[in-house]
Amino acid sequence: MGRLVIVSNRVPDPRERNKPAGGLAVGLADALRTEPRCLWFGWSGKQTDFVGDPEPSLDEHGTVTYATIPLTPQQHRGYYQNFSNGILWPLCHYRLGLMNYGRSDWHQYLEVNRMFARTLKPLLKPDDIIWVHDYHLFPLAQALRELGVTAPIGFFLHIPFPPWSLFRALPCADALLEDMQAYNLIGVQTEEDCQNLWECMRIENETDASKVVACPIGIDPVAFAEEARDSDNGLEVKRLRESLHNEPLIIGVDRLDYSKGLEERFLGYERLLTRYPEHHRHVTYLQVAPISRGEVEEYRQLRRQLDETVGRINGAFAACDWTPIRYLTRPVQRQVLAGFYRMADVGLVTPLRDGMNLVAKEYVAAQNPDDPGALVLSHLAGAAPELGEALLVNPHDADDIADALHQALTMSREERKRRWNALNLEIRNTTAGTWARDFLAMLHRSRREGTA
Ligand code: ADQ
Questions:
Q1: Which of 57, 297, 352, 365 makes an SS bond possible with 224, Cβ 3.0 to 4.6 Å?
Q2: What is the pLDDT of residues 236-289, one digit of tens each?
Q3: Using CA atoms, how far apart are residues 125 and 148, in angstroms rounded to an integer?
Q4: What is the C-alpha R_g of the chain?
Q5: CATH superfamily of this structure's domain 4-218+432-449
Q6: The model scores a pTM over 0.70
Q7: Could you give the angle at the alpha carbon of 20 between the alpha carbons of 31 and 349, nearest 5°?
Q8: What is the 452 CA–ligand 1 centroid distance (Å)?
Q9: pLDDT of residue 452
């Protein structure tokens, strides 16, 4: 069998194990442990002034060869910042009002995808199978096909896909959908995304329904549970525990992104303090939200707004010995996070839209089975259909969040255990390993059946 070739916008640096990663890198790293040989190709995260196709840098690490290329500042702006993060990200998260379309960015996006194809092609071997990831690279298969690549090419979209009524607002929607025909198989997180994307592709072209499949991503729950147990005695975890004096902890962990619903979540917590004063001086809400995409104006604005909201809530409710919200925008190591999750009585995960949300699954995996915490989860997260035993809330409704938090904080141990057992079963059924295995098996099958 040939190699698995993974292509994603960013390639993680294998030497930076403790750096906080996005969900894609976390999911793939878990899945890769079972692959015999693999090439992972993408942007190094660095910029160069060299104009012309760059030579990929190769770095072997265990069974994985990492091949990375830099981008010019112009490519970084047009392809990455503007088109991927300023147009596709808000559009796919149903936020049309935040989309800033510019035709030159679209051209830059296409050109970088072609450059990825040109620099990847010489690294390919005859039996390779290619798996492309995420919205930065929608047109990559078409660009590879134009260069004569005939290998099976699969695509996985980690973020949601909106319905045609929204997607058609993108001026180049038809060209993008046309290019996506070049994939043998396209995976998305949920049935809803699957319906939406298939509908869009069908409107543009005849598309076989079996080309788009829902294949939800998971974590490695056994390894994560172990990590959580091990970190229980770590220094930072101990410090947090001691600072709480046996009082309850609510935890939220997200990249600082408008899709994660942080402002609405803070307002929900504020409503809890207003409507349920019995929690005053007892409950602490720890929000870990490391800054991401700090160069994009919408993200800078969001940060200012969140700083203000946290300051206002703390100012209004704090006592000399109690801070209602502890808000960290610096990164926290994954192992420490696992210990924080385990200690927390409530996991608060309320994105306004999310492809999946691995934090919800990590929170469940990290719990102590004898005394698990409760999960409060947005019904608009991709994880919600699987995690129906969480307390599902509408993230736009502060009262709904407040009620669910109160219910979670006062829930009997028996009910917490019953709900957690059901949630734990779910996350053990759909893991990072099963996700990759299932997707790749379908990709091999689609080639044999000739659905390309
Ligand atoms: P993300 O939007 O990055 O991923 P998510 O699924 O929650 O969101 O994954 C975040 C990952 O980063 C988790 O493993 C989490 O532990 C880690 N992380 C977050 N904050 C951290 C911090 N402060 N320190 C260390 N680690 C941190 C995208 C999509 C999601 C989809 C994933 C995977 O937006 O919807 O679930 O890809 O497909």
A1: 365
A2: 999 999 999 999 999 999 999 999 999 999 999 999 999 999 999 999 999 999
A3: 13
A4: 22
A5: Glycogen Phosphorylase B; (3.40.50.2000)
A6: yes
A7: 85
A8: 32
A9: 45
Cα of 165 vs centre of ligand 1, distance in Å, is 28
Atom index in ligand 1 nearest the CA of residue 255 equals 20
Catalytic residues: 158, 354
pLDDT (average), residues 63-75 = 96
Query: In 366-406, where do the E strands start and end?
Result: 374-378, 391-393
What is d(CA 339, CA 228) in angstroms, rounded to the nearest whole number?
Answer: 5
- Residues 6 or more apart from 210 whose CB is under 8 A from it? 446, 451
**pLDDT, tens digit, for every residue of 191-211?**
999 999 999 999 877 778 889
Non-local (6+) Cβ contacts of 116 within 8 A are 7, 41, 42, 69, 137, 140, 143
Confidence (pLDDT) at 163: 98
Common-topology check for domains 4-218+432-449 and 221-429: yes
Q: Of the residues 255, 333, 377, which should be mutated to test ligand 1's pocket, given the most ligand atoms within 8 Å of the CB?
A: 255
Distance CA 373, CA 390 (A): 11
Sign of CA dihedral 189, 99, 359, 109: positive
For residue 213, which of 196, 191, 234, 232 has the smallest C-alpha distance? 191
Nearest CA residue ID for atom 11, ligand 1:
23
Please give the average per-residue pLDDT across 19-28, as a whole number.
Answer: 64
Written out in words, the top-level CATH class of the domain with range 221-429 is: alpha beta
Q: Where are the domains positioned within the chain?
A: 4-218+432-449, 221-429
Q: How far apart are CA 443 and CA 6, in angstroms?
A: 13
DSSP string, 248-267: -EEEEE--B-GGG-HHHHHH
pLDDT digits (tens, 9 = 90+) for 137-183: 999 999 999 999 999 999 999 999 999 999 999 999 999 999 999 99
Between residues 425 and 62, which one has the greater pLDDT? 425
In the reported structure, the alpha carbon of residue 360 is separated from the centroid of ligand 1 by a whole-number distance in angstroms of 10
Ligand 1 cavity residues, CB under 6 Å: 20-24, 26-27, 158-159, 217, 253-255, 288, 290, 331-332, 334, 337, 354-359, 362, 382
Rounded distance between C-alpha atoms, residue 328 and residue 26, angstroms: 21
Parallel/antiparallel/unpaired status of strands 374-378 and 38-47: unpaired
Q: What is the mean pLDDT of the chain?
A: 94
